[in-house]
Amino acid sequence: MTSGTPIHSEEMKTMATATITVKGMTCSGCVHAVTRALQAIDGVQKADVDLARECATVTYDAGQISVETLRQAIEEAGYDAL
Ligand SMILES: [Cu+2]
After folding, report:
1. Distance from Cα 69 to the centre of ligand 1, integer Å
2. In angstroms, what is the span from residue 26 Cα to ligand 1's centroid?
3. Per residue in 9-57, pLDDT tens?
């Protein structure tokens, strides 16, 4: 008798990318602060913060969190998310 391997159901991942305008960043320290704040969120896969363009490009699981969650984290870090 052979024992079958259990079938693991695929986790539902709905990855999305959002570009959020971030105001108030003045140096690379700010970029780090925003990047860290975003990456600390459960559901964020990748966060790229651009000082010159004043924006954050975030890849996240839309089934877990929303853009609002990302904005909130940026605000809590002390910057303005538009
Ligand atoms: Cu700074």
Report:
1. 22
2. 5
3. 556 679 999 999 999 999 999 999 999 999 999 999 999 999 999 999 9
Alpha helix ranges (H) inside the chain: 28-39, 67-76
Cα–ligand 1 centroid distance for 24 (angstroms): 8
- Grouping H, G, I as helix, E, B as strand and the rest as coil, residue 41 is coil
pTM of the model: 0.83
- Asked: is 15-81 a CATH 3.90.1150.10 domain? The reply is no
Q: Name the maximum alpha-carbon separation found in the chain.
A: 67
Domain boundaries, the chain: 15-81
